[in-house]
Design brief:
The radius of gyration is 18 Å and the shape is elongated. The chain has one domain (5-40). The protein is built from two helices and no strands. It is mainly alpha-helical. It has helices at 2-22, 29-40.
């Protein structure tokens, strides 16, 4: 029984990671430069 719940948890984790990867925010070049400069301040 433990093995089955472990695999479904692994599958759920993989699914969540896939969704996060596909819906990750895309930053423009200008936005990336602004973020880096703000971090250096």
């Amino acid at each position: 029984m433990n093995k089955k719940s472990g695999t479904s948890k692994d599958a759920a984790d993989k699914l969540v990671r896939g969704i996060k990867r596909k819906t990750r925010k895309q930053y423009s070049a200008e936005e990336k430069i602004r973020i880096v400069l703000a971090g250096l301040r």
